[in-house]
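Lecture 7, part B: from sequences to assemblies.

Below are the input chains for today's worked example.
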Amino acid sequence: MSTSRVINFGAGPSALPQGVLKKAAQGLLNFNDTGIGIAELSHRSKEFGAFLSNVESLIRTQLDVPPTHSILFTQGGGTAQFSAVVLNLLARHRLLYPDLADEHRVMDYVLTGSWSRKAHDEARRLARGARVNVALDARRHSSDGVSFDNVPPHGEYAFSRAPALIYYCENETIDGVQFSPDPDARTSFPFALLPREPGGLLPLVGDHSSSFMSRPIPHLSEHAVIFAGAQKNLGPAGLTILIVRQDCLVDVDAAARLGATPVPLCLSYRLLAQSKSLYNTPSLLSIYITGLVLEQMRELGGLAYFEALNRTKAEKVYAAIRAGEKRGVFQGKVQAGSGSWMNVVFNALGDGAEARFLEGAEKAGMKGLKGHRSVGGIRASLYNAITEADTDTLVQFMEKFVSEADS
Ligand code: PLP
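Predicted structure of the full complex, as structure tokens:
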């Protein structure tokens, strides 16, 4: 069997560093000298326990997670968290304001793309009398009135007074829209405008699934919950990482006795924290590979290294799109200032151009460039494992495509 590989620009599950995969193959046979492979090992073994707590500390130190927040590991992906954040934070709201009528409980959603819209739809399913307020719908500010192609300016947000949660998706994987990391940018997330609770806390929930560990998280310590699936920047699918502020680890049964919706035990943040993420069997293999990736990240220089690298990669691809736009060959799908570093989306213009682009790319050893089926076009996902050299290969192919279309 050949072990040769293509460059995988897919949006997830995505490429992983080759060196790590080779090391992981060893761990599949014999994990840390236990004589047992990682996929065969008990999650209650002391060796796995030690590995898991090291994974936690690799995230805590690199992302600068303060002691006010727990780092938890679970399953079910971002999709399960669409439900879990609603149930846990409505329970918290119930405990904070037990006498409030349900119609006065509000959840604020910021819609900047397909994933935040999906999370919003799930909140509506689970709201049971509470209100779901759209604090912002970026489609209203789009170039065609229907697509998600921008992050609107701060003046466009309308938050509620004391919401149970404020929800946003940091990087919209399908639409290629991301908040700017520069706090002064017009397209940054409007942290200063958020409605605080009497104690000064924010019930802020961020879906960081497709940008987690690609650069520092602005205002991390002010978040109630941050969640991310591992399968973009860190490891195989099957692991979801949560960063939860400790006041959000609430007694969901006590809340249910006051009228809140009962929370399935596997979705309770408090139970997960109390059991040190081992209430039920976790995805050992995914945690293992994630740990190896995090170790390699630390050796390379941590988030400062990846932030600089990811910025450079994205700038190169956006520059190639702009050069193609001038010749009428490409068209970026996202407005200036809102483009994602992780998922760069664009169209190849003209009859059959997109198919020619994808076919040519595949011949040149690049896969996974087809846009999501709901929006079409081309999508280059530039997660951490995509190197600058991989990016250069794509950019050179784009330049050649433009010059051939031109001639
Ligand atoms: N949120 C974002 C931003 C995503 O990109 C995805 C999946 O790609 C999800 C949520 C859903 O994650 P999962 O498929 O792990 O449930």
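Note for the exam: The pocket of pyridoxal-5'-phosphate is lined by residues 12, 77-79, 115, 169, 173, 207, 209-210, 229 (CB under 6 Å). Keep this in mind when comparing with the next example.
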